[in-house]
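User: I'm preparing a small set of examples for a lab meeting where we compare how different chains pack in three dimensions. I only have the primary sequence for this one, and I'd like the structure in token form so I can line it up with the others. Please keep the answer compact; I'll paste it straight into my notes.
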Amino acid sequence: MTSSLYAIIIPLAIIAALAAIVLIIFLYLRSKVRRFSKEAFGTNDIVKAAKEIEKSSESGRAIHGMTDVYLPMIHKDFPDFDYDVFKGRTEGVLKSYFAAITAKNVSFLTPDCSDSLKNAVIGIISDLESKNYTRKISDITIHQTEIARYNKDGKTVTILFNTSVGHTDFTADENGRVVSGSAEKKAQTVYDIALVYAQDTAKMSSYNATALGVNCPNCGAAVTNLGQKYCEYCGTGIREINVRSWSFEYILEEKSTSKPY
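Assistant: Understood. Below is the structure token output for the 261-residue chain.
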């Protein structure tokens, strides 16, 4: 009877000891993981930390925009400038740029694009066709758009937008072999998009070019506010002779900011 009892107790004791060892190891490892999670991510909850990492990767590259600095300056020159509208137009132009390259069709560009930007896209398409390549930009997520710079050179005004984007972007040869980029991995990058306010040369012939948008046509006083409607000295309307217009001049990818998700 005693030997039978030992035969039952000993295996149970061994199992209990092994269970205790496993429990101790588990608690030790959990403690180490929680400590690492707390130090690395500010939380003991490793699941929450993982979700925060995923959320962070999907939020796109952070842009240190200068919108708050430059927007008051822009509004001083152009009181009617609607930032939200132009921000939307900027993002729309960028999406049309991607679509035009993917489809190899410049007509996909929005009417806001200048001839310079259209010619740049035509050049990209021509280069692809000369090599019998295709480029596909898809799964596009626009994370953030901010004003990066505001420049005036006397003849033109340039507002440079930075847009943080996530997308898949790859180029393939005629056999479908990927030669650059990745068809599987989504990357995030930042694009420079230039919005320019320049004289419409097609309308210049009927006006005095030296006074256009710079001097009042009546008293000759300098027009210090590029968006004003009346001369601040004599009250003469100047909106009619302001033949400047906004257009998007170029789009450049900041290669140094590109990285995979």
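A couple of notes for your slides: Residues 2-41 form the longest helix (40 residues). The CA atoms of residues 78 and 228 lie 7 Å apart.

User: Perfect, thanks.
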